[in-house]
Amino acid sequence: MSFSRWLLPRLKQVEGERTPRSVLHILRGKKSAQTFQDSRLFHLADFYHVLPRLSVDAFDQAINQLKKDGLIEEQDSLVVMTELGEHFCQDHWQLELNGMDYGAITRPFYIRLQLLIQSVSNLIHNQTQFFPITDDESVQASIKKIFNDYNPLAQNGEVLYDELNRLFRLLNENDANLMMLTISGSDQIGLSYQQIAEKWQMDPIMIELSVQSVLHQWLGYITSNPNSFNLIKQLIPKQDENRLTESALLTKHMYNRGMSIDQIVEKRRLKPSTIEDHIVELAMKEILFSIRKFVSLEDEKRIRYVLEEDMTKRLKRIKEQLDGQVSYFQIRLVIARLGQEKEAISNG
Amino acid sequence: MVEHQLEHYLKKYFGFETFKVGQQSIIESVLAGHNTLATLPTGSGKSITYQLPALLSAGITIVVSPLLSLMIDQVKVLKAKGIKRVATLTSLHNSHQKQRILNHLSNVQLLYCSPEMLQQSHVMNYLKQQHVNYFVIDEAHCLSQWGHEFRTDYLKLNTVHRELGQPPLLALSATATDEVQQDIVNHFNLSFEKIIYPIDRPNITLSVRNVETVEEKHRQLTKLLEKKRMPTMIYFSSRMKSESVCYMLQQQFPDRSIAFYHGGMESEDRLLIQQQFMYDQLDVICCTSAFGMGVDKANIRLVIHYHMPSDLESYIQEIGRAGRDGRPSLACLLYQRGDESLPFHLIGQELPDDEMISAFLQAEDLSDKLTETQERFLAFQAEKNRYSSNDLFHIIQQVRDQRLAVKKDSIIGLLKWIHTDQCRRQVLYKKFQEEVKTPEYDCCDQCGFRVDDWELPNDVSFSLEVNWEKRLNELFNKR
C-alpha cells in the first residue's frame, strides 16, 4: 500500500471542511491550538504526531498522486472526495496508532531503546568499541545513567532479553521481523526505513508508520503493565508539559496559582482571545483540566448535543440532502456562520 | 622516550601492537619539541601522530581542522576507544555549550578547533591561560594558495600560534607538493623538521575506462560489479546521481546489498549506512565525497569513480580508501568525454562572480544569494585589503581570477592524467614525490593491466538475519 492510499481515509475525515495541509499538520504534530482542535474534531487524534519528520514535498506528492488517480479534488482549496475516492476509502492497513497519547514521546523512547539494546548486545559479546547509533549526547547520557542504576548486563542481559521477548511476542510475525530489522547490535546494524522499503518493495513512509504503530502498542502495554517492564519502562520519557506551547504553559502556571483570565491578560499584556486560546489548548491536552469554571455542566451538555448533531452532517451529505441544488461555497458560508455561533457559545 | 615505551602506550590507548610506516619518526620529532612538517598517505594513521603525544602530556593539544565532519568523526573514534578527555569547539555549538567547554579546558587533553573559532578573542583569552603542549594543523595544504583546498581562514594561524606562545607545531597533510610545503614554512617563518613520506599505494591497481555514452558507462559499471561480491565504493559528484545509479544497480543485482550515502540525508540514516558498510553488511555504497571522512575500513577492494573529482589530490585521497589491509585492490575511473564540465561548474560556485563582488562591496543584502564559501572569500578579502589605496573591486577580482586559474589548472591536471599514455602510477604521484614504489600486484592499464582479466578471491559475505527470534538470540549471545 502506498502512503497516498493510506492517506485517503484521513482526508475524508476533513472533507469539505479543511485543506489537505491541515492533515499534514496533524501528522507532523504541529503544536497549535488549531491543529489540536482539528485532530479531536475530525477524529484524527490517533494520527497526531505520528510522522514528525514528514516533508511538505512528500505530502504534496501524495496529494497530487491522489488527484491524478481521480480520488480527490480540491474545491475552493478544501479537500473533497470523488465517487471513486469514496469507493477506495476503506482502511485495509490496520495500524494501531495512538499519536495523541504517545506521539511526543515515541521518538526519544525508540532511540533510547535502540541504544540500550546496541550497548548491551555489544558488551555481552565483549565488544567494547562500537559506534553508538545516535550522536545525541543527551541520549547517550540517559543510557549511561541506566547502566549505573540498573546494571542491565547482569546475567548476560537476561532482564532486557526477557522484556524484549515479551514485547515482540505481542506483535504479528511481520511486524516483529520489521521492527527487529531496525535494531542494531553486535551482529548486524539496523536498516533505515528507506532500506527496508527497498527490500520489501514498499513505501518508506508506510514502514515508518508500521514502526510507529509497534512502538505505540508497546508503550500502551508497558504503561498498563509497568511492573512487568522494570527496565524498559525507564526509557519512557516523563509525559511532562512539553506538549503545550510555551506560552500556554506560562498561562497554565498562572492559572494554577489561582489567577483569573482577566488577571493573566493584564499581567501578560496579551489579548483576552490569546489567553482563551491557551485555556482551550489546556482543555484539549490535559484530561485532568476542568472546564467547569468556564462552562456549566448544563451548557456543556447543550453544546455537545449541537456539536454531535453537526458532526454527523458532513458537507457532502448536506449537499446530497439538498439534491445538489446548492454549491459547496454556499454550504461553507453557512457552516462558517454556524462555527462562529458555536464559538460565541463556548466563550460565553 | 625509548621505542618499547612508545609502543606500550600505542597498545594501551589504541590497541595496536606496532606503528605503521612513518608514525614513529613523526611522534618522536613532536615529542622532542621540533616544529614538524609531515606527510603520510591517507589511511596510514596520520591522527595518531598527534593523538599519542597529546595523551602523554599534561597540558592541552590544539588541533585545527577544516572540516566539521572530520573533527566529529575523530572524537567519536577516540571516545569509542575509551579516550574521553577530548572536545570540539566549532560553530555547531551554541554560546552556552561553547562556554561550558571553555570553562572546563583544564580537563581537556585534545581540543579540536575550527580555524574561525581561533579568530574569536573570547576563545583565545581562555586558550592563552592554558599550557598548550602542541599546536597541530591538520590538512595543512589548506594554508597554500597552490593547495587544492585553500582556506582563507587558515591564513591567520601564524598570528594565533604566536599568541599561544609558539608551542611546538605539527603541520600534517596527505598531499603536499613542494610548492605547498614552501608556503607552509613561509607562513610561519619558522624552521621545520620535514618528514615527507611517499604517498603512493603499491597494492592499488590503477585504471581508467573511456566511454562514449552514459549507457556505456553503466555497462562498464555493471561489468565491474559482476565480477565478485566485494566491498565497493562508487564516487559521485551529484547527490541525485548517486541515488539514481544506486536504484539502477539494486535492480541489476538483487542479491547484493547496495545503498547510497550523501550529505542530504538524515544524520541517523547516515550513521546506519556507514556502520553497515563497516560491518560488511553492505556490498556497494554509492556516495559523494561526504562519505568516508572517519571511515577506516580495511577491506575495501574496489573504488570506482562515476564522476571525476576536481583535482589529483582529491583523487589520491579517495582511492586511498581502498586496500588498507594491504591486499590487492582496484581503482577505476569511468570517463566520458565532457565529464569535466561538472567540476568546472562546481568551482564556479565556490567563488563569487563580478556582480556578487560589486554587490558585496556596496553592502547589499546577499544573504541567500551567496554560497558559504563565496561569502567567506569576500569577507576575508574585503577585510584584508581594507586599507588598500587601490580599487577594492579590482583587487578582489584579481585574487578571484588567480584562484580560479589554480582550480582550473587542477582540473586540467587530472584530465591530463586521464588521457596520459604513460604509466598512470608515475604520472599520478609525480607532483608529490620523486619516484614510486614497485607495485605489488598489477600496476595500471598503461602497463598492460586489463580490467576484464581482474580476478579476486571472493572473501566477504554477509547474510542478513530477518527472523526476529533468531536475531534476539544472537543479540544476547544465546544459541
Automatic annotation (TrEMBL), chain A:
InterPro entries: Helicase_HTH, YpbB-like
Domain of life (superkingdom): Bacteria
UniProt domain Helicase Helix-turn-helix: residue ranges: 248-335
Protein name, entry field: Uncharacterized protein YpbB
From TrEMBL, chain B:
Residues annotated as domain Helicase C-terminal: 220-367
All residue ranges annotated as the Helicase ATP-binding domain in the record: 27-194
UniProt cross-references to Pfam families, sorted A to Z: DEAD, Helicase_C
Keywords linked to the UniProt accession: ATP-binding, Helicase, Hydrolase, Nucleotide-binding
Record EC number: 3.6.4.12
GO terms, molecular function: DNA helicase activity; hydrolase activity
UniProt protein name: ATP-dependent DNA helicase RecQ
UniProt organism field: Alkalibacillus salilacus
Native organism taxonomy: Bacteria, Bacillati, Bacillota, Bacilli, Bacillales
